Amino acid sequence: MVDQKKKNESLELEEAISKSEAFVLKYKKPLIGGIAAIILIIAGILCYKNYYSNPREEKASAAMAKAEEHFRNNDFEIALKGDSLGTPGFLKIISDNSGTDAANIAKVYAGECYAQLGQYKEAIDMLSGFDEGDQMISPAVLGTLGNCYAQLGQLDKAVSTLLNAAKKADNNSLSPIYLIQAGEILESQGKKKEALDAYQQIKDKYFQSLQYQEIDKYIDRLK
Questions:
Q1: Is the Cα torsion angle 152, 164, 49, 130 positive or negative in sign?
Q2: What sign results for the dihedral spanned by CA atoms 13, 18, 21, 26?
Q3: CA nearest 108: which of 87, 129, 133?
Q4: pLDDT for residue 155
Q5: Average pLDDT in the chain
Q6: What is the pTM of this model?
Q7: Under a CB-based contact definition with an 8 Å cutoff, are residues 165 and 139 in contact?
Q8: pLDDT tier at 149 (50, 70, 90 boundaries)?
Q9: Beta-sheet strands, E only, within 44-127
């Protein structure tokens, strides 16, 4: 009887692991790419709004513009490391402009570049160094961090980070995205109640979001 119980528990564990791996493979690109545009828009607004306060920021802003162009064109390697034609790259901007707003925003871009290149550990290291003082960008940074943790198979950490991102954003644009991502990871782990709680938040709080229109199908499949 005891042996049968252990066998059943082993099968359940294997099934949970299989579902988790399937989730990561299925969402490898959408998990990261879905947030890139949001970070680009928010960071871009702040770049051109705040970078002209002093000469150091102005110089950094000019360098950022070249790297951002490559980022928009999906040339992530050049955007990150620069080239021989005058693009310094986000890594050089960070090292040359320590302590500036430009360097802080460059960490967001650099982290996203690493994520797009599949270098998730480097992305985590970079984004973890972002100064979270800016409430506009920090939820998007946390969202990308959560997705990187998922790619590395650190699913519990991914869920907690995504839920934190949703809570910190607390808006109809970002929060539902992170809640659905967290919910789907939880489903892949067999944690149906926790997944349902994540989806229910969208139903209860974010009824003006696009995700609200289809959240019932997520909820119904768990009930």
A1: negative
A2: negative
A3: 129
A4: 93
A5: 80
A6: 0.78
A7: yes
A8: very high
A9: none
